[in-house]
Amino acid sequence: MTQILNSYACDQWFVPSSGLVDIVSAIDGRVVAQASSTGLAMDAMVRHARDVGGPALRALTFHQRADILRALAGYLGEHKEQLYALAADTGATRRDNLNDIDGGIGTLFAYASRGRRELPSEHFVVEGAPEGLSKGGTFVGAHILTPLHGVGVHINAFNFPCWGLLEKFAPAFLAGVPVITKPATATAYVTEALVRLMVASGVLPAGSLQLICGSVGDLLDHLSGQDVVSFTGSLETSEAVRNHPALSRHAVRFVAERDSLNAAVLGPDAVPGTPEFDLFLKEVVREMTVKAGQKCTAIRRILVPRAVESVVAEALVAQLSAIRIGDPRAEETRMGALVSRAQRKAVLDAATAIAGEGEVLCGSLDAPEALDAAHPGGAFLAPILLRCAAPLTAHHAHATEAFGPVATLMAYDSLEEAVALVAKGEGSLVASVFTYDPQVAAALVFGIAPYHGRLLMVDRDCAKESTGHGSPLPGLVHGGPGRAGGGEEMGGLRGVFHYMQRTALQGSPGRLSQLTGSWIKGAPAPVSPTHPFTRDYDALAIGDTVETGARTISLEDIEHFAHFTGDTFYAHMDEAAAKANPFFPGRVAHGYLILSFAAGLFVDPAPGPLLANYGLDNLRFLKPVSPGDAIRVRLTVKQKQAGRKPEYGEVRWDAEVFNQSDETVARYELLTMSARPVA
Ligand code: NAP
After folding, report:
1. Mean pLDDT of the chain
2. 265 near 247, Cβ under 8 Å?
């Protein structure tokens, strides 16, 4: 019996009974599943996300949400074979699934780590340093980021049924925003299985994830200004979604990742015989054939110096003709099928348009009879290499996306021309530059960077460890300007912040310190009766302060420090030379001497809850200290953060060192770990 795909709405599985459409296997054309969203109450799904999912997620801190992502990734990793088994019918080989399934799980792990490492154990983020807004220091400003109270609607393309869901879900979830995800129908059976696993993991809070199998229906009509739409797919569909009246009326945040005619450029120095030349050929062949070229990041335009065009053509034709095409489950298969015959027809139509401005170097623009005879009902297609005769005036090579194993070779005569050709793509996700020449690298990279979200520079030094042209990395930008959709925000923490509102807070230092949980200069700094180093983490309050006595720095101290450390720089040792320096009045104390003496002033020597000092941030020496000056320190608890283990917490101290005239001579943040009472 054919499987009917269920949607997951309001924490229940919904079984459609009408409007079902067939989904066919890419390898033999049989119907593998049916899908429909007829009867799904989209308004109820949106309400459920807002009323149940949002509050449940916002009750958790970033760290708690990061821990859930990690647990989810672990669970999916243990059960991924089920997904591999299903994905064969999408035409994907095991190697292809590494990108989609393992890549998706890896993305969850990456966001989990970033959430733990780079976000606070809090419900909001304070962005940047506070800014003084008045002369007297009683009126200051700071930016906070808080999760939106809406839903992330994620509409995905067919080519990455797992990664597509997970790379969008992870940042939204980490931000505290629930998700309604809608996979492309053609491969929705893999996504449905993924969501079943996610639900079965038992780690997701109620309402945090819902799934629509089938069309979006009237979903977009129910969105408002607290919602986010994140779309991946073709330029045409992206335009239809972006122009939806509800999105413009409510200024719904919209981000798109769409068509991209990505380029690979071979530098003039990378002639045959150089490692870069071989790396270039390898990458082009790989990008044309992984996932049968159905990858938004695939290389579509191959730019080479005119002098090597025919050598490159010959080598590519030889390598592409040797690719083993067939059943994606077979060990020896290098390239599986396109997702459907309909998709194959679209690819052949696009390739025919491009070939109209040039020639076919390998492959065929007709349906492949031999492959069809070997795989009845399948959507297999041999790689097609095209050559564009006049790339500077051609249109289709730069504007028509053949979303399959198709790329176009084009020659350039100068680096300026190469840059101009790349720019004709009007914005791409990624380009690769193959050169070992620093000047070529600079000319190409700075010429084409404004048109790209990501640039990969390949040479002999990084080739071994490079993740390749087609692999976006969770910490880096994925998206691109112009035609590629403008989805730059989706890389790393910016992807998380896209689901949050940035708000400027203005008020007194005391009020801002209280609200942000971070001490700001000018806020109350009560000197505590006992030294804060004698109190454990839980007993420390933001603002707790120790004021030290003063210590006079003598010339002997400076000389002793100089000889002891070996730092006999003239500014500390030679009065005349120091005086000639524009910054110093004469011999001055070492900055590190000031830091060391400061530690000697504020330390509490006995064993206690303070476990270790693990660094300094934002250190500035603001005024020279001369022999005879007396320094003192004010140390204030600025921020607290739960540690990686329950036995300790991390404390950030604001340290300010003054001279005898109460001028600040140094300022920094001291980072310590303090013990917590174990229950
Ligand atoms: P598509 O036809 O544009 O469909 C994308 C998604 O939009 C599907 O989930 C589709 O659902 C949905 N959709 C279609 N009409 C809609 C409407 N009127 N309102 C709301 N949603 C609608 O793209 P595709 O064929 O799946 O994917 C291939 C394209 O995606 C290629 O052009 C490729 O370049 C692009 N892509 C880009 C990236 C990137 O990161 N830049 C990544 C992957 C793919 P149904 O399937 O149910 O129609």
Report:
1. 95
2. no
pLDDT digits (tens, 9 = 90+) for 208-249: 999 999 999 999 999 999 999 999 999 899 999 999 999 999
Is 388 catalytic? The answer is no
Question: What pLDDT, on the 0 to 100 scale, is given for residue 474?
Answer: 65
Report whether pLDDT(488) > 70: no
Q: Are residues 244 and 311 in the same domain?
A: no
Q: Are 380 and 323 in contact (CB under 8 A)?
A: no
Q: Residue 226 is inside which H or E element, if any?
A: none
For residue 258, name the pLDDT band (cuts at 50, 70, 90).
confident
Q: Are residues 280 and 458 in contact, defined by beta-carbon separation less than 8 angstroms?
A: yes
346 lines ligand 1 (CB under 6 A): no
**Given the residues 167, 257, 357, 401, the one annotated as active site:** 257
Residue nearest to atom 43 of ligand 1 (CA): 296
Whether the predicted pLDDT of 489 surpasses 60: no
In a domain, 510, yes or no: no
Task: List pLDDT tens digits, range 140-184.
Answer: 999 999 999 999 999 999 999 999 999 999 999 999 999 999 999
- Note whether 148 and 99 are same-domain residues: yes
- Residue recorded with tokens 């035609």: 483
Catalytic residue among 167, 296, 388, 489: 296
Residues forming beta bridges with residue 655, ordered by sequence position: 635, 668
Residue 473 has pLDDT above 80, yes or no: no
With respect to residue 481, please indicate whether it lies within any of the assigned structural domains: no
Quick one: 179 and 312 in the same domain? no
Number of domains in the chain: 3
Domain interval for residue 234: 40-258+494-500
Q: Whose CA is nearest to atom 47 of ligand 1?
A: 185
**How does pLDDT run across 101-115, given as a tens digit for each residue?**
999 999 999 999 999
253, 293: one domain? no
Query: How confident is the model over 113-124, as pLDDT tens digits?
Result: 999 989 998 999
19 assigned to some structural domain? no
Strands 262-266 and 428-434: parallel
Average of per-residue pLDDT across 88-108:
93
Same domain, 412 and 531: no
CB 421 within 8 A of CB 303: yes
Q: How many whole angstroms from 259 Cα to the centroid of ligand 1?
A: 9
Domain CATH code at residue 450: 3.40.309.10
The verdict on residue 591 lying in a domain is yes
Mutational pocket test of ligand 1: of 38, 154, 155, 191, the residue with most ligand atoms within 8 Å of the beta carbon: 155
Calpha distance 179→173 (Å, rounded): 8
User: Mutation test of ligand 1: which of 218, 232, 287 has the most ligand atoms closer than 8 Å to its C-beta?
Assistant: 232
Q: Is 462 a catalytic residue?
A: no
CATH number at residue 632: 3.10.129.10
Does residue 269 share a domain with residue 161?
no
What is the Å distance from ligand 1's center to 291 Cα? 16
pLDDT digits (tens, 9 = 90+) for 584-618: 999 999 999 999 999 999 999 999 999 999 999 99
Dihedrals φ, ψ of 367, to 5°? -55, 135
**Percent of the chain at pLDDT above 90?**
90
* 184 ligand 1 Cβ < 6 A: yes
Give the C-alpha separation, 611 to 92, whole Å: 53
Tokens of 186: 């053609």
> Cα(207)–Cα(218) distance, rounded to whole angstroms?
20
Of 348, 352, 357, the residue nearest 292 (C-alpha) = 348
Residue 469 has pLDDT above 80, yes or no: no
Closest to 444 measured CA to CA, from 305, 547, 576, 560: 305
Q: Which of 160, 229, 234 to mutate to test the pocket of ligand 1 (most atoms within 8 A of CB)?
A: 234
pLDDT at res. 482:
83
